[in-house]
Amino acid sequence: MSDLLLYIQLRLEPGCMGPQGKDHIEAFCKQENASPWQNQFATVSVVPRYDKTLPEWEYRVKNKLLSTEQANKFISMHDMTKPDLEDDIESHMAEEIDAYMQGKL
Predict the structure, then answer these.
(1) What's the rounded Cα separation, in Å, for the pair 81 and 93?
(2) Within 10 A of 54 (CB to CB), how many other CB atoms are there?
(3) What's the CA gap between 74 and 95, in Å, rounded?
(4) pLDDT score for 103
(5) Where do the domains of the chain lie?
(6) What is the mean pLDDT of each run of 10 residues along the chain (105 residues)?
(7) What is d(CA 89, CA 10) in angstroms, rounded to the nearest whole number?
């Protein structure tokens, strides 16, 4: 098994934080990146998704952008599928967004 770390960039749309998401997305991403989601082989950085032409997910190893096929292969080496990994991250983000927004209300 490899000691390489998978770096995932997740672009979050401001709308995922509700109608006032655009007012909170920058601060949320900064807070999330202070203690990012991670597991034994991957870590996530979160940025706002203002440009919808950019992909929601990007995968890198050693600063090299991976294709979907390469990302699938890397993730499968860790007994996981890309959809399962993305589901785990999305569930975590939903909980973090809820907690963040609760603090803003």
Answers:
(1) 18
(2) 11
(3) 26
(4) 87
(5) 6-104
(6) 84 94 96 94 97 96 96 97 97 95 80
(7) 9
